[in-house]
Design goal:
The complex is a heterodimer of chains A (about 300) and B (about 240).
Chain A lengths: L12 H8 L3 H36 L3 H16 L2 H24 L8 E2 L2 E2 L14 H34 L2 H9 L4 H31 L2 H4 L5 H9 L14 H30 L11 H9 L2
Helix pairs in contact in A: 2-3, 2-5, 2-9, 3-5, 4-5, 5-7, 6-7, 7-10, 7-11, 9-10
Chain B lengths: L1 H22 L2 E6 L2 E2 L3 E3 L5 E2 L1 H12 L3 E6 L5 H6 L5 E2 L7 H6 L1 E2 L9 E5 L10 E5 L3 H9 L2 E5 L2 H9 L5 E5 H9 L6 E7 L8 E2 L4 H16 L2 H10 L7
Parallel strand pairs in B: 1-5, 1-6, 9-10, 9-11
Antiparallel strand pairs in B: 2-3, 3-4, 6-13, 7-13, 8-11, 8-12
The chains are: A mainly alpha (about 300), B alpha/beta (about 240).
Chain lengths: ~300, ~240
């Protein structure tokens, strides 16, 4: 990185540190903070969409759709995140490959399950084994996003369902008295008003989502926890920059990062709440936000 | 001139096709990347170590295009079996238990001893608390030896456990421990006798992948025959390392 870094063995103090902190491996560590932020920014809207669809389904007058909506929240909310993550990602990956195998290699005669092996034809591999490494990493990341969205969508569905029910019944009755159809009343009266009831619960979910991002590590995505452990471990002179066990410092950096992220989120959410409840006589206004927080907490 | 251009175009095309052809057989090499000097992630962020050099040479001899992938030790066999990569080249000893789930090529490192490392000499290796990496032959050995086994996900954490007193000693491959002991300024030392557990180290492949296994078997054999494998072992594990 710097001109003085050509011979690290001769360096000391700050010069050594400046070179050490700019190795290719550290750059990957810094990039992984971006991975976490991208995960958050992509997952939050997708999870919200899942949640909205789930809440709408749960309110449906069509029984099978209602069962689907209620079943989705009940099943996903009732299974530990880690168990769901470990199961679902493998199941999804093998499911995709199985479908591709069926479509792309109809003439394949060998069984897919050979003892312990899961073997599909090379053309059905997802991604293809010849694809460059970044494609594999993006695919793994996409699987993680889908899994996160499904898990947090179930919680969001419950929060939004509660938010919809919290809109005063009189509002809907008035809308119907004005001649609005059920659909019109839902989109024009209920949806704009429910956010204020749902926001404390959604804010909670956002915080939990931030704290759940280290689960990426479990899915084999090289996130900040992976790199912190990898970089922090003691290094012998097989490495260019040998050092003793520094995991404490690396994990401390992660701690500070997460605290900063959650603190900034809190400030933004409080402002958003203040703006949404401005001039409204709802329980969300003023200090009521905290009470609603508990009422709708997952 | 025109002919030259045509020839060049034809060459470029055939090169492109050759490239496409070789791409179809990319072999993904799965390793742990946390077990120096066998395999580790170097400061540039790339897989490095004895197995990186060996694997690249084997791929060259077998005329395969190889790509390196890292995976946690704990789930390295399940992810091979489900097809996330095609080989395991991660200092994995050949044992009957593993051989039931996956297949191994012939050994590329002869059976090398494991050793105990502790802070002091008076450690009871059969009754104390011994650290080992999860799902290793050493962990199995400690469990059977009567000592209390504490397992860790990475080999580095087993050393840290001994340093901070969580475990009395660690059992691991001697080749992995030797540089750590040598550079600890006398803090860590080998205790007790070396133990020989399991056989040599081989590459793991799916049981259904016999063709790939045979290719690597042939490549390993050719490196054994011309002595380059022994040279590589001496380079990474020292002059005293066991060779073929």
């Amino acid at each position: 990185m710097f001109s003085w870094c050509t011979d690290p063995d001769t360096l000391e103090g700050l010069a050594w540190l400046s070179c050490y902190l700019t190795t290719g491996k550290h750059m990957a560590f810094y990039r992984s903070f971006g991975t976490v932020m991208v995960l958050l920014l992509v997952t939050a809207p997708v999870a919200l969409a899942f949640g909205f669809a789930g809440a709408m389904a749960a309110r449906s007058h069509f029984a099978p759709l209602r069962w689907l909506g209620k079943g989705y929240t009940a099943v996903v909310r009732g299974v530990p995140d880690i168990a769901f993550f470990l199961f679902f990602v493998i199941a999804l990956d093998q499911g995709i490959e199985y479908l591709r195998h069926r479509i792309k290699c109809p003439d394949w005669s060998e069984p897919i399950r050979q003892g312990n092996d899961f073997v599909v034809c090379p053309a059905a591999k997802m991604p293809l084994s010849s694809a460059p490494q970044w494609v594999h990493e993006t695919y793994g990341f996409a699987l993680a996003v889908i899994t996160f969205a499904i898990v947090f969508g179930a919680f969001a569905a419950n929060v939004l369902y509660g938010g919809m029910r919290a809109v005063p019944r009189a509002q809907m009755e008035t809308a119907e008295a004005y001649g609005m159809s059920r659909r019109q009343a839902f989109w024009r009266i209920m949806v704009p008003q429910m956010w204020v009831y749902a926001l404390p619960g959604l804010g909670n979910l956002w915080m939990i989502l931030i704290k759940a991002t280290p689960l990426l590590f479990l899915l084999g995505v090289e996130d900040i926890v992976y790199w912190a452990r990898e970089l922090g471990g003691s290094k012998t002179s097989a490495f260019t920059y040998p050092h003793p066990d520094w995991r404490l410092y690396y994990f401390l950096a992660l701690l500070v990062f997460y605290l900063l992220l959650t603190r900034v989120s809190e400030i933004v959410l409080d402002r958003l709440m203040a703006r949404l409840t401005h001039g409204q006589a709802t329980s969300g206004a003023k200090s009521g936000g905290r009470a609603a927080d508990k009422g709708l907490a997952i | 001139m025109k002919k030259l251009v045509l020839t060049a175009a034809a060459l470029a095309m055939s090169a492109g096709m050759a490239l496409a052809g070789s791409h179809a057989t990319t072999v993904r090499m799965g390793t742990e990347g946390a077990y120096p000097p066998y395999n580790f992630i170097n400061d540039a962020g790339e897989v490095d170590g004895f197995e990186r050099e060996l694997g690249d040479e084997l791929c060259k001899r077998a005329e395969l295009t190889c790509e390196w992938v890292t995976n946690d030790w704990d789930s390295i066999i399940p992810n091979l079996v489900s097809g996330n990569y095609d080989t395991i080249i991660a200092g994995m000893s050949i044992t009957p238990e593993r051989d039931e789930v996956i297949d191994f090529t012939q050994e590329y490192i002869p059976g090398s001893p494991s050793a105990y490392v502790a802070l002091s000499d008076d450690v009871d290796t059969t009754g104390g608390v011994i650290a080992a990496q999860t799902a290793t032959i050493q962990a199995g050995y400690v469990a059977d030896s009567g000592a209390t086994l504490v397992e860790f996900a990475t080999a580095d954490e087993t050393i840290a456990a001994v340093r901070n007193g969580e475990a009395d000693a660690v059992l691991a491959d001697k080749d992995f421990l030797a540089p750590i002991v040598a550079e600890s300024n006398g803090e860590l030392k080998f205790v007790g006798d070396d133990v020989v557990i399991g056989g040599g180290v081989g590459m793991g492949v799916r049981e259904s992948d016999t063709e790939l296994k045979e290719k690597f078997n042939a490549a390993i054999q050719s490196m054994k025959d011309d002595g380059s494998l022994n040279a590589l072992i001496r380079k990474w594990f020292g002059e005293d390392a066991q060779t073929f």
